[in-house]
Amino acid sequence: MKRISILGSTGSIGTQALDIIGKNQQRFKVSALSCAKSLDLLCRQIEEFHPEAVSVDREEDAITLSRKYRKLQVFWGMEGLKTIASMTGCDLVLNSLMGMRGLEPTLSAIEAGKDIAFANKETLVAGGELVMDAVKRKGVNLLPVDSEHSAIFQSLQGSVGNPVRRIVLTASGGPFRGYSKEQLRSVTLEDALNHPNWSMGSKITVDSATMMNKGLEVIEARWLFDVPLDKIQIVVHPESILHSAVEYEDGSVVGQMGNPDMRVPIAYAFSYPMRLDLSQAVEPLDFFGLKNGMNFYEPDREVFRTIDLAYEACRRGGSCPVVLNGANEVLVDAFLKGQIGFTDIQENLIRVMESHAPSYHLEIGDVLETDRRIREEVRNMI
Fold first, then answer.
1. CA separation for the pair 173, 337 (Å, rounded)
2. pLDDT digits (tens, 9 = 90+) for 236-246
3. pLDDT tens-digit series, residues 75-130
4. 2: nearest Cα among 23, 25, 18
5. Fewer beta carbons below 10 Å: N end or C end of the chain?
6. How many helices and strands in the chain, by DSSP H and E?
7. What is the DSSP letter of 101?
8. What is the dihedral of CA 12, 13, 18, 20, to 10 degrees?
9. How far is Cα 74 from Cα 266, in angstroms, rounded to an integer?
10. Cα separation of 369 and 109, whole Å?
11. Is the pLDDT of residue 251 over 80?
12. Do the Cβ atoms of 219 and 124 come closer than 8 Å?
């Protein structure tokens, strides 16, 4: 029986993870859950899965839950997230939090010797060196849940130390594949949230539309798989059937394919190195139904300059990825609130990164302070 804590249990990844646990209760048990504001959904999850502890954002919500569930341990705020991430009655922590909030709980879980299933790419973007050093020191497993990184991880199984020539990181291209710069200026929030293949939260869906999501995944892959940037290639694959691949020195390309369904990488992270039977949940891939074949294109780096911004931030290192990530989160939030236009996200990111003078040898406090400062600067800019 594997005991799992889910950070962000009411979001898209969290609810799908609980669906898997609910169908495999002989193998998994929920230790703890967390949410930001969706208390009604969290209460339903508490009543179905009976966790030992929960964490919420606000103290007043924690008081409400404590009164309602007398035997439940209830925590709140960042300290609450760190507490349930490191609690003794847990074997694996699924981090599906959005943004930088995932970094500190991840480090707490690693220090407590927990394996990590992570769908919080900002953890490695902003704190890659800190996280990977802690993983090596504590000897825990870091299991990717993002479909692309899970595909790469799966494609590396059984490689027996064979050198990698190239990592092929696939991208759907989002809703605006083939658009010109001029066309992007007139897109709406509704257009940006209409992803052609995946059902995701609003922030990551906008990141997919700007292609920043793929840029952040490049940085994540650099840390997770310990490969140089020039060995990571983005390939636009609109059908999202090949989720990513690895090319070895002999020219062999090993990839992971399947219908777009996040339950597959979530389940693999939960059951690794074994695989769960998802035949009743996930539709099998119909090769004969791929009437239009599988198509692959180069990304348009002139229109979607976020890709090169991410490569350059990773290349420069230090505080640059922290600044890129923090500025992007604020700008996407402003777009979601109708305060700026779609192309303002990219144009302001370019301005921020061109003016940033990086600092190096960052500790956790430096990362958090850099993130706080850039967010304040970008809010003032807006």
1. 24
2. 999 999 999 99
3. 999 999 999 999 998 999 999 998 889 999 999 999 999 999 999 888 899 999 99
4. 25
5. N
6. 16, 11
7. G
8. 120
9. 26
10. 21
11. yes
12. yes
d(C-alpha 114, C-alpha 362), whole Å: 24
Question: SS3 letters for 126-163?
Answer: HHHHHHHHHHHHHCCCEEECCHHHHHHHHHHCCCCCCC
Which residues, 6+ apart, have CB-to-CB distance to 156 below 8 Å? 164, 225, 246
CB atoms within 10 A of CB 85: 28
Look up residue 285 and give its DSSP letter.
Answer: P
Residues 4 and 87: their CA atoms lie apart, in Å, by: 11
Q: Which residue has the tokens 């658009």?
A: 179
Q: What is the mean pLDDT of residues 361-382?
A: 96
Q: In a 3-state reduction of DSSP, which class is residue 167?
A: strand
Q: Nearest Cα to 94, choosing from 157, 159, 26, 18? A: 18
Task: Give the distance from CA 378 to its chain's centroid.
Answer: 23
Cα separation, 361 vs 36, in Å, equals: 32
DSSP state of 310: H
For tokens 């981090």, name the residue: 95
Judge contact between 121 and 13, C-beta under 8 A: no
Q: Distance between alpha carbon 174 and the CA centroid of its chain, in Å?
A: 16
Distance of alpha carbon 321 from alpha carbon 349, whole angstroms: 12
What's the average model confidence in pLDDT over 166-192? 94
Asked whether the beta carbons of 7 and 31 are under 8 A apart, the reply is no
Contact of 353 with 305, CB cutoff 8 Å: no
Q: Tell me the two tokens of residue 283.
A: 């539709």
Per DSSP, what are the bridge partners of residue 368? none
Q: What token pair was written down for 244?
A: 């990513």
Which pLDDT score, from 0 to 100, does residue 136 have?
96
Q: Show the tokens assigned to 14.
A: 């969290």
Q: Which two tokens stand for residue 21?
A: 């646990």
